[in-house]
Amino acid sequence: MMRQLGIMGLPRNYEIFYEALAGTSPELSLSVIALSNRPTQDELDRIGQKFFAHNHTRSIVEQARDVLARELEDVAAMLRSERTHIEKYGRILDETSSGLKERNVLSRELLEKIVGAISTATASTLDHGRRVATALNDKTNELETVKSKLEEYKRLADTDPLTHIWNRRAFDTEIARIYNSNRGILFNALILADIDSFKNINDRFGHPAGDKIIKSVASIFHSSVPAGMFVARTGGEEFALIVDGATEDATFEIAERIRTLVEQTCFTCDKAGTDCGPVTISMGICMASEASGPEELYAKADRALYRSKVEGRNRVTRHSSMPGRPGKNWMLYKTE
Question: Is 19 a catalytic residue?
Fold first, then answer.
């Protein structure tokens, strides 16, 4: 829905739409429905400030932009001051040199005055230069702090606020990278997963319990795959894994291991330890070589996931095993 409306995949935007579609606040849902076909970020932030004030303070990007403008203006002012000081020093040397050329005979007293003036001007210029260097070093440290904040903002913009794994925005970027090289096409796979009958869980135990289950499932995904594997929450109860350097059989084993771990985990809904009953996931797999691009790869993995759902849930389906699937010409993907 956010992609259709052209909305950026920022954590605060995901929060608005997740809560609106989950129905936790009828007033919020009505506010989202009332949005224009192409809502601006300002419109979304006004909704966020109304319903989620703690997460919608002034944007760090705006703050960073103001800080950068101030710091760069300070740096420019220091450099202008240093240039003026050096130009003044240069004029003193020029005037002194011209005066020496015009005089054939110089008294000791005059030479001492000249040397004193040059010495004072030199000391002042060097001292000013040291102060400017120190100030520039301080500004550099301040700009490094701003840089770190912006990098943290980028990380947060790509992170799901509920589960702290990658979000849909990061996933869209990562899946597109697969098709940037022949190696990515030959040695990558996509696993899509969906918590079975999740609406029933929300209806029976409430949305806080549903969020707790989503976080627990995300933790299982993250902890049961090799380090560095890309794991994202792409929707309400939907997850995606991008597997690099594994065969289809190995990819299936990864998916099956996660499915089994979720099935065997006891999920509690509250502090009292109320059992939420069995929680299972359905999964679909598609190798990158089975698709011509990221959109087709996602569509085929989603088709395999849907097959898992209609065949009884709590299972893993390979797209390659589905009936009516056209073959793929592997000779298209020669090594680079």
Answer: no
Rounded to a whole number of angstroms, the CA Rg of the chain reads 32
Taking the CA atoms of 189, 178, 293 and 214 in sequence, report the sign of the dihedral they define.
positive
pTM beyond 0.85: the answer is no
* Cβ pair 230, 254 in contact under 8 A: no
Residues of the chain with pLDDT below 50 are: 327-336
**Distance between CA atoms of residues 288 and 248, nearest Å:** 10
Catalytic residue of the set 15, 82, 174, 237: 237
Rounded Cα gap, residues 129 and 117, in angstroms: 18
Using CA atoms, how far apart are residues 136 and 133, in angstroms rounded to an integer? 5
Q: What are the DSSP calls for 28-77, one per residue?
A: HHHHHHTS-SS--HHHHHHHHHHH-GGG-SS-HHHHHHHHHHHHHHHHHH
List, for residues 165-185, the tens digit of each pLDDT value.
998 888 988 999 999 888 878
Residue with tokens 């050329």: 101
pLDDT 10s digits, 28-71: 889 998 988 888 888 888 888 888 765 555 555 666 667 777 77
Whether 235 contacts 165, CB under 8 Å: no
For 190, the enclosing helix (H) or strand (E) is strand 188-195
- Given a contact cutoff of 8 angstroms between Cβ atoms, the answer to whether 283 and 193 are in contact is yes
DSSP state of 91: H
Q: How far apart are CA 91 and CA 171, in angstroms?
A: 61
| Encoded tokens for 33 | 């429905």
